Amino acid sequence: MILVTGATGNVGGALVRELAARGVGVRALVRDPARPLPQGVSAVTGDLNDPTSLGDALAGADGLFLMPGYDDGIAAEAARAGVGRIVLLSGGSVAGGDTSNAVAEYMIRSEASVRESGLPWTFLRPVSFMTNTFEWLPQLTDGDVVRAPFAEVAIATIDPADIAAVAAEALLSDGHEGQAYPLTGPEALLPADRLAVLGEVLDRRLTFQAEPDEEARARMLAAMPERYVDAFFSFFVDGTLDETTVRPTVAEVTGRPARTFRHWVEENAAAFAR
Q1: CATH number of 2-272: 3.40.50.720, 1.10.1740.10, 3.40.50.300, 3.90.1150.10?
Q2: Residue 33 has pLDDT above 80, yes or no
Q3: Residue 250 banded pLDDT, cuts 50, 70, 90
Q4: Which site among 30, 43, 183, 227 is 20 to 30 Å from 244 CA-CA?
Q5: Contact, 131 vs 160, CB < 8 A?
Q6: What is the DSSP secondary structure assignment for residue 48, as one 8-state letter?
Q7: What is the DSSP letter of 100?
């Protein structure tokens, strides 16, 4: 039995489907227990900011897939419940050790709490998700021009389904304990390159425009706290995070290549239809 937190998110949702397809018992931690889930998946409720609320969800669980950035006591609560292992979704910025960076800090803290629990652990450190492309939907609904920041930064974006596949292997098989896996897709693409692929698959003539840093900062500040905006500018303007280098980890762990961005677009083309 595997308890999956973030069970309706990009990675957690894909992991729930992956485990269910393998015939593994799955508990999905959700806010709304009436939300539809794959057949055979049990919905459980609890508050990740209140580890004591997770007792029933953790009871009898063999493994825990954990989202980062929540109460540091979750891992200790899992250890008390007798959970066998934890797979934590983290990020590549942890490797830099910069606790002044808001994004890196909460992932560093989450990794530390899992280590301190004494449970066998595996950390997943993916780059940016292919699903971030959905951020372009409002612009694509209005027209054929996409303005996006960090235009000169090529990123080896990853399909969340590949992260889920690695998580499933780490939860269900031995040999992954104590590993921190860097996870990427198979190719590093500029935003304009990704838009070109999207246009080809959708059969639309799309145009990319680079969003100036000042404009991007103002837009982002309207949507998130300044410390997180500073974190992303540190990553992609100052270059403190490498999301360009392609890593072979997905293939090494799962036995199959990481999915391409084109594959992801083809699977999700309906979401971009006008």
Answers
A1: 3.40.50.720
A2: no
A3: very high
A4: 227
A5: yes
A6: T
A7: T
